[in-house]
Specification:
nine-stranded mixed sheet; 7 helices; globular; binds NADP nicotinamide-adenine-dinucleotide phosphate
Protein backbone atom coordinates (compact mmCIF):
# COMPACT_ATOMS: atom_id res chain seq x y z
CA UNK A 1 0.00 0.00 0.00
CA UNK A 2 1.20 3.51 -0.75
CA UNK A 3 1.49 6.63 1.34
CA UNK A 4 0.19 9.34 -0.96
CA UNK A 5 0.43 13.13 -0.62
CA UNK A 6 -2.26 14.94 -2.62
CA UNK A 7 -1.72 18.58 -3.61
CA UNK A 8 -5.01 20.26 -4.35
CA UNK A 9 -6.51 17.78 -1.92
CA UNK A 10 -9.88 19.51 -1.56
CA UNK A 11 -10.52 19.55 -5.31
CA UNK A 12 -13.29 17.59 -6.99
CA UNK A 13 -11.03 14.96 -8.55
CA UNK A 14 -8.87 14.81 -5.43
CA UNK A 15 -11.81 14.19 -3.09
CA UNK A 16 -12.97 11.29 -5.22
CA UNK A 17 -9.40 9.97 -5.30
CA UNK A 18 -9.00 10.25 -1.53
CA UNK A 19 -12.22 8.30 -0.92
CA UNK A 20 -11.35 5.53 -3.36
CA UNK A 21 -7.66 5.27 -2.40
CA UNK A 22 -8.50 5.14 1.32
CA UNK A 23 -11.06 2.41 0.71
CA UNK A 24 -8.34 0.37 -0.98
CA UNK A 25 -6.06 0.73 2.02
CA UNK A 26 -3.73 3.48 0.87
CA UNK A 27 -2.77 6.23 3.33
CA UNK A 28 -3.58 9.65 1.92
CA UNK A 29 -2.60 13.09 3.16
CA UNK A 30 -4.39 16.00 1.54
CA UNK A 31 -3.02 19.54 1.23
CA UNK A 32 -5.87 22.06 1.44
CA UNK A 33 -6.18 25.82 1.94
CA UNK A 34 -9.32 26.39 3.99
CA UNK A 35 -9.81 25.12 7.59
CA UNK A 36 -13.44 24.22 6.89
CA UNK A 37 -12.31 21.62 4.29
CA UNK A 38 -10.48 19.51 6.89
CA UNK A 39 -13.49 17.65 8.30
CA UNK A 40 -14.69 16.59 4.83
CA UNK A 41 -11.25 15.30 3.90
CA UNK A 42 -11.00 13.34 7.15
CA UNK A 43 -14.48 11.88 6.54
CA UNK A 44 -13.25 10.63 3.16
CA UNK A 45 -10.43 8.80 4.93
CA UNK A 46 -7.66 11.33 4.30
CA UNK A 47 -5.43 13.19 6.70
CA UNK A 48 -5.89 16.92 6.13
CA UNK A 49 -2.72 19.01 5.88
CA UNK A 50 -3.12 22.77 5.85
CA UNK A 51 -1.13 24.91 3.39
CA UNK A 52 -1.28 27.03 0.25
CA UNK A 53 0.86 26.72 -2.86
CA UNK A 54 1.19 30.50 -2.97
CA UNK A 55 2.56 30.73 0.56
CA UNK A 56 4.73 27.63 1.04
CA UNK A 57 8.45 27.52 0.25
CA UNK A 58 9.98 24.43 -1.35
CA UNK A 59 11.42 23.38 2.04
CA UNK A 60 8.15 24.12 3.81
CA UNK A 61 6.17 21.94 1.42
CA UNK A 62 8.89 19.26 1.50
CA UNK A 63 8.58 19.11 5.28
CA UNK A 64 4.83 18.48 4.92
CA UNK A 65 5.39 15.82 2.23
CA UNK A 66 8.11 13.84 4.03
CA UNK A 67 7.13 10.25 4.76
CA UNK A 68 4.96 9.87 1.64
CA UNK A 69 6.12 7.75 -1.28
CA UNK A 70 3.80 9.09 -3.99
CA UNK A 71 2.82 12.68 -4.78
CA UNK A 72 -0.35 13.49 -6.71
CA UNK A 73 -0.81 17.03 -8.04
CA UNK A 74 -4.45 17.79 -8.83
CA UNK A 75 -4.45 21.48 -7.92
CA UNK A 76 -5.57 24.14 -10.35
CA UNK A 77 -6.85 27.68 -10.40
CA UNK A 78 -9.84 26.56 -12.48
CA UNK A 79 -9.74 29.79 -14.48
CA UNK A 80 -10.43 31.84 -11.34
CA UNK A 81 -8.26 34.91 -10.85
CA UNK A 82 -7.07 35.30 -14.45
CA UNK A 83 -3.82 34.31 -16.16
CA UNK A 84 -1.58 35.30 -13.25
CA UNK A 85 -3.41 32.94 -10.86
CA UNK A 86 -3.30 30.13 -13.42
CA UNK A 87 0.45 30.68 -13.74
CA UNK A 88 0.83 30.74 -9.95
CA UNK A 89 -1.11 27.52 -9.25
CA UNK A 90 -1.10 25.32 -12.35
CA UNK A 91 2.39 26.52 -13.33
CA UNK A 92 4.64 27.64 -10.47
CA UNK A 93 2.60 25.58 -7.99
CA UNK A 94 3.46 22.43 -9.92
CA UNK A 95 7.12 23.43 -10.08
CA UNK A 96 7.12 24.05 -6.32
CA UNK A 97 5.57 20.64 -5.70
CA UNK A 98 8.07 18.85 -7.97
CA UNK A 99 11.00 20.56 -6.25
CA UNK A 100 9.51 19.77 -2.84
CA UNK A 101 8.97 16.11 -3.77
CA UNK A 102 12.65 15.86 -4.69
CA UNK A 103 13.69 17.45 -1.41
CA UNK A 104 11.33 15.13 0.50
CA UNK A 105 12.78 12.07 -1.25
CA UNK A 106 9.51 11.22 -3.04
CA UNK A 107 10.33 9.68 -6.39
CA UNK A 108 6.91 8.92 -7.84
CA UNK A 109 4.88 11.94 -8.99
CA UNK A 110 1.46 11.85 -10.68
CA UNK A 111 0.10 14.99 -12.36
CA UNK A 112 -3.47 15.66 -13.47
CA UNK A 113 -2.91 17.66 -16.65
CA UNK A 114 -5.09 18.34 -19.70
CA UNK A 115 -5.29 17.40 -23.39
CA UNK A 116 -3.24 20.06 -25.23
CA UNK A 117 -5.84 19.79 -28.00
CA UNK A 118 -8.83 20.27 -25.66
CA UNK A 119 -11.84 22.01 -27.19
CA UNK A 120 -10.10 22.71 -30.52
CA UNK A 121 -13.44 22.79 -32.35
CA UNK A 122 -14.83 25.67 -30.29
CA UNK A 123 -13.99 29.34 -29.99
CA UNK A 124 -12.10 29.91 -26.78
CA UNK A 125 -10.85 32.78 -24.68
CA UNK A 126 -7.30 34.00 -24.23
CA UNK A 127 -7.63 32.78 -20.63
CA UNK A 128 -8.25 29.25 -21.84
CA UNK A 129 -5.33 29.42 -24.28
CA UNK A 130 -3.12 30.60 -21.43
CA UNK A 131 -4.36 27.68 -19.28
CA UNK A 132 -3.42 25.17 -22.00
CA UNK A 133 0.03 26.78 -22.40
CA UNK A 134 0.68 26.77 -18.64
CA UNK A 135 -0.41 23.14 -18.31
CA UNK A 136 1.90 22.10 -21.16
CA UNK A 137 4.82 23.96 -19.56
CA UNK A 138 4.03 22.15 -16.30
CA UNK A 139 4.10 18.81 -18.16
CA UNK A 140 7.53 19.72 -19.54
CA UNK A 141 8.84 20.69 -16.10
CA UNK A 142 7.74 17.39 -14.60
CA UNK A 143 8.92 15.31 -17.56
CA UNK A 144 12.41 16.84 -17.25
CA UNK A 145 12.51 16.49 -13.45
CA UNK A 146 14.19 13.08 -13.29
CA UNK A 147 11.36 11.81 -11.08
CA UNK A 148 9.28 8.71 -11.87
CA UNK A 149 6.45 10.81 -13.24
CA UNK A 150 3.11 9.98 -14.79
CA UNK A 151 1.19 12.73 -16.58
CA UNK A 152 -2.52 11.95 -16.87
CA UNK A 153 -4.39 14.07 -19.40
CA UNK A 154 -8.13 13.68 -18.89
CA UNK A 155 -10.65 15.07 -21.35
CA UNK A 156 -13.29 17.55 -20.22
CA UNK A 157 -14.30 16.57 -16.69
CA UNK A 158 -17.93 15.81 -15.91
CA UNK A 159 -19.75 15.27 -12.65
CA UNK A 160 -21.71 12.36 -14.11
CA UNK A 161 -21.39 9.16 -12.08
CA UNK A 162 -18.43 7.07 -13.14
CA UNK A 163 -19.00 4.08 -15.38
CA UNK A 164 -15.77 2.32 -14.37
CA UNK A 165 -14.94 2.11 -18.08
CA UNK A 166 -12.50 4.30 -19.96
CA UNK A 167 -10.36 4.75 -23.03
CA UNK A 168 -6.74 5.53 -22.25
CA UNK A 169 -3.33 5.43 -23.87
CA UNK A 170 -0.48 7.62 -25.05
CA UNK A 171 -2.80 9.23 -27.61
CA UNK A 172 -6.59 8.90 -27.73
CA UNK A 173 -9.21 11.15 -29.34
CA UNK A 174 -10.25 14.09 -27.20
CA UNK A 175 -13.52 13.57 -25.29
CA UNK A 176 -15.18 13.82 -21.89
CA UNK A 177 -14.69 11.75 -18.75
CA UNK A 178 -16.44 11.65 -15.36
CA UNK A 179 -14.26 12.80 -12.46
CA UNK A 180 -15.14 9.51 -10.71
CA UNK A 181 -13.37 7.60 -13.48
CA UNK A 182 -10.36 9.93 -13.41
CA UNK A 183 -10.01 9.16 -9.70
CA UNK A 184 -10.37 5.42 -10.30
CA UNK A 185 -7.73 5.56 -13.02
CA UNK A 186 -5.33 7.39 -10.70
CA UNK A 187 -5.88 4.80 -7.95
CA UNK A 188 -5.02 1.99 -10.36
CA UNK A 189 -1.96 3.84 -11.68
CA UNK A 190 -0.71 4.23 -8.09
CA UNK A 191 -0.88 0.46 -7.76
CA UNK A 192 1.22 -0.10 -10.91
CA UNK A 193 4.64 1.44 -10.22
CA UNK A 194 5.90 -0.12 -13.45
CA UNK A 195 3.95 2.65 -15.20
CA UNK A 196 6.49 5.45 -15.15
CA UNK A 197 7.61 8.28 -17.40
CA UNK A 198 4.41 8.02 -19.42
CA UNK A 199 1.91 10.54 -20.73
CA UNK A 200 -1.56 8.99 -20.62
CA UNK A 201 -4.63 10.51 -22.25
CA UNK A 202 -8.00 9.52 -20.79
CA UNK A 203 -11.63 9.76 -21.83
CA UNK A 204 -14.81 7.83 -21.24
CA UNK A 205 -14.72 4.48 -22.99
CA UNK A 206 -15.58 0.82 -22.93
CA UNK A 207 -12.67 -0.87 -21.17
CA UNK A 208 -12.82 -1.49 -17.40
CA UNK A 209 -10.34 0.86 -15.70
CA UNK A 210 -8.27 -1.88 -14.08
CA UNK A 211 -7.87 -3.69 -17.41
CA UNK A 212 -7.09 -0.45 -19.26
CA UNK A 213 -4.40 0.52 -16.74
CA UNK A 214 -2.93 -3.00 -16.71
CA UNK A 215 -2.65 -2.70 -20.49
CA UNK A 216 -0.19 0.16 -20.03
CA UNK A 217 2.32 -1.99 -18.14
CA UNK A 218 5.25 -2.79 -20.43
N1 LIG B 1 -12.33 21.07 -15.78
C1 LIG B 1 -11.94 20.29 -16.76
O1 LIG B 1 -12.69 19.95 -17.69
C2 LIG B 1 -10.53 19.75 -16.75
C3 LIG B 1 -10.10 18.95 -17.82
C4 LIG B 1 -8.84 18.38 -17.76
C5 LIG B 1 -8.01 18.62 -16.68
N2 LIG B 1 -8.43 19.43 -15.67
C6 LIG B 1 -7.51 19.62 -14.53
O2 LIG B 1 -7.90 18.69 -13.54
C7 LIG B 1 -7.44 19.13 -12.27
C8 LIG B 1 -8.47 18.82 -11.19
O3 LIG B 1 -9.72 19.30 -11.58
P1 LIG B 1 -10.86 19.51 -10.47
O4 LIG B 1 -12.15 19.56 -11.18
O5 LIG B 1 -10.64 18.56 -9.37
O6 LIG B 1 -10.47 20.99 -9.98
P2 LIG B 1 -10.92 21.76 -8.65
O7 LIG B 1 -12.11 21.10 -8.03
O8 LIG B 1 -10.99 23.21 -9.01
O9 LIG B 1 -9.69 21.50 -7.66
C9 LIG B 1 -8.51 22.24 -7.73
C10 LIG B 1 -7.99 22.37 -6.33
O10 LIG B 1 -6.79 23.18 -6.37
C11 LIG B 1 -6.79 23.90 -5.18
N3 LIG B 1 -5.96 25.09 -5.17
C12 LIG B 1 -6.17 26.26 -5.82
N4 LIG B 1 -5.27 27.17 -5.42
C13 LIG B 1 -4.49 26.55 -4.49
C14 LIG B 1 -3.40 26.96 -3.69
N5 LIG B 1 -2.93 28.20 -3.72
N6 LIG B 1 -2.85 26.07 -2.81
C15 LIG B 1 -3.32 24.82 -2.73
N7 LIG B 1 -4.37 24.37 -3.45
C16 LIG B 1 -4.94 25.23 -4.32
C17 LIG B 1 -8.23 24.33 -4.98
O11 LIG B 1 -8.39 24.69 -3.63
P3 LIG B 1 -9.78 25.28 -3.05
O12 LIG B 1 -10.65 24.07 -2.85
O13 LIG B 1 -9.33 25.91 -1.79
O14 LIG B 1 -10.28 26.24 -4.07
C18 LIG B 1 -8.98 23.08 -5.38
O15 LIG B 1 -9.26 22.27 -4.27
C19 LIG B 1 -7.12 20.62 -12.43
O16 LIG B 1 -5.72 20.79 -12.38
C20 LIG B 1 -7.61 20.94 -13.82
O17 LIG B 1 -6.79 21.89 -14.46
C21 LIG B 1 -9.67 19.98 -15.68
Amino acid sequence: MSNIFVIGGAGKVARRFIGQASERGHSVRALHRHPEQAADLAALGGVPVSGSLTELSVSGLADLMKGSDVALFSAGAGGRGGPETTAAIDGRGLELAVDAAKEAGINRFLLVSVFPDALRDEPHSEGFENYIRVKKQADVYLAESGLDWVILRPGTLSKEPGTGKVRLGPAVPYGVVPRDDVATTLVHIVSQPQIRREIIELTEGSIPVEEAVAGLVR
